[in-house]
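Regression test attached.
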Amino acid sequence: MTEMIKLFVNGEEVEVESGKNLIDALEKVGIEIPHFCYHPALGADGNCRMCLVGIEEGRPPVVPACKTPAKEGMKVLLDADHIKKIQHDVMELEFINHPTDCPICDQAGECKLQDYYMKYEGTESRMRVPQVKKRKVQDFGGGVIHDQERCVACGRCVRFLRQITKTGELGLVNRGDDCRVEFFPGRPINNRYGLNVVDLCPVGALTSADFRFKQRAWFLKRAESICHGCSKGCNIMVDHNKEKYEDDIIYRIRPRHNEQVNGWFMCDAGRMTYKSENDNRLEECTLAGTVRPLTDILADAQSRIEKASKALFLVSPSASLEQLVAVQALAEKTGAAVSAFSDGYIVKDDGDDFLIKDDKAANRTGVDLLSIAKSRTHFDNMAKEADVFINFDNDLSRSLSEEQIGKLFKDTWVLNAATHPGHLGTAMAGKAGASVALRSWSEYHGVVVNCDGIAQKFVGGVMKNIERPDIVEIAAGLGSPATGAAAAWALVQKKIPALAEFGSFLELPAEGVNLTDNEAGK
Amino acid sequence: MAAKVKQLPSRGGTPAEKVYLIEIFKGMGITLRHFLRNLWDNSNLYVRHYPEVQPNIPAHWRGRHRLLTHSDGTPKCVACFMCQTNCPANCIMIKAGERTDGITEKMPVSFTIDLAECIYCGYCVEACPEDAIRMDTGIYAFTSSNREEMKIEMDEMLSLKGGYTEEEYQKGLEDE
Ligand code: SF4
Ligand code: SF4
Ligand code: SF4
Ligand code: SF4
Ligand code: FES
């Protein structure tokens, strides 16, 4: 447990965690100190002066909260007139040359300048001389667009690229009203985490070229999810919206803070995974080449499984724990084999020592916890024996060539349940006995376990116009004892005792459950 | 031409009036009298001879929408979505895109209002920070036998002209 200390804010006693600066310590108890340049991941820089607070009986009497550790008995002043005047005047200074482009600024609605103006300034401009003009719509590389006029010179972007990615593409040049962020000529932002500067920028000076003008921030619905781009499992916010007469689509993915996993950041490739959630999705269920209702397909498959001498179920290493146990339980009941063969999901030497991992599967640890076989030999042997093969959204084309897949399932009846076309290669597309269009991770809820053994819940907020089934539903339709999401979760808890204490999956703590800790402790 | 209005006192209290049949025959007589008179000469009718005679629309009347342009003919709209955000009928549908004419960065690539759903509240006009949308065309009659035709698009709204001079319009806003 962190040690607690007592201090006074505007004369009232509050209890806060020690070892933090005033901004973070007070934020935890719901007291906001306005600030631009400080960010918990980048440390205090002390350049914006927006966070100045008064300290009664202190020397000096006014201090930057970002650089002042919370101390026992401290008397912090936030609502005194001289502090309010400082906040007002710092804001007025920021606005001297600010273009106030809000109507065309993508940051509008989530902009600190806008919020603080309403809270701490709120007066008309006193500027009577022309504003300093600077460059607008500058391509900073890496999908980042810079607007020099909107910049408040907080240096967050510069510090991120120096301290975190250590690539140092950006720098602050000149002073006063000529101060601006620049990159060295010919060396724009070029690293795999560059888009994080867009989230870090407290104003609309750095915006994303990909998201540019697609949506206004206040239209977006948010779903707390987990990135399925690699085994790190970065915590993300899926921002989606269903426009009138259109489908619910995702407009952007942003990182969500989780100190245990990804801190405040995520990689650029992970952000772009939303595109495959929106586009090129399977839409129909087919049986012997014709579109049929799902129930027909499941009835047909079920009778084939019963008659088969051996059935093989292939699961995806990115499937949720619930989906995995649902298929596993079905296999146990019908005497089928289950494999999670997915060697092709591992991209050698792609990972780094920050977030990106070689393994592009979101739940391989979960596969191992449930003791699902995933070796090539096991898969090959079972495939040779099987006369019914059901693929539950494993992208086998990543692991095997088209000929290999074709050869393995030459005489096998194949049901391919998938989110996207091409999981069994294009050659198999026509040959599959049946196919089912599945829900993808942004559309279902579940739990996945990341590479460090941290079980994390995610919520699928996207509601597509086309109703697609989830793997748990399909397994249930084929006779799995896990008849629904709740039953599947109960099975997960039986197989992974460390999760047994949580009622529903939604009760998992926000920071996840470290399964390796729990098991060591038991 | 303003319509003629005549106020009639409310009646129906006397015993003779309460025997309804008498009043019914009186009424039929009046109807017959008007019918014969109007058949001969209809200049004394107490209604507007619409559509031959059009009403006078004041400048603050909220009619059909138009999108305003700068003096060079380019749209004033910057696709900020304030009108769409504030529209209580949720009938404005904008798609935004890059603007390359150097005036600003952003503009609508499509701008649709479904007039079948619009409640003519004027919130869109009030919300616009650029004075890019107005309802001052003076056009109040807009019908169709087809729902799709009730959706008006950007080009059409840009081509519409205001029905009043700027002074009349501004004064109309004040009167309101
Ligand atoms: S940075 Fe904020 S205040 Fe400035 S134009 Fe953008 S939204 Fe408006
Ligand atoms: S671009 Fe944004 S993050 Fe960078 S210094 Fe300017 S305001 Fe700060
Ligand atoms: S590091 Fe992995 S989990 Fe994190 S955002 Fe990138 S792809 Fe997703
Ligand atoms: S007049 Fe009212 S209902 Fe009609 S488009 Fe404008 S805001 Fe929407
Ligand atoms: S946040 Fe403390 S000076 Fe900027």
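Expected vs. actual: identical. The pocket of iron/sulfur cluster (ligand 2) is lined by residues A 151-157, 181, 200-201, 203, 205-206 (CB under 6 Å).
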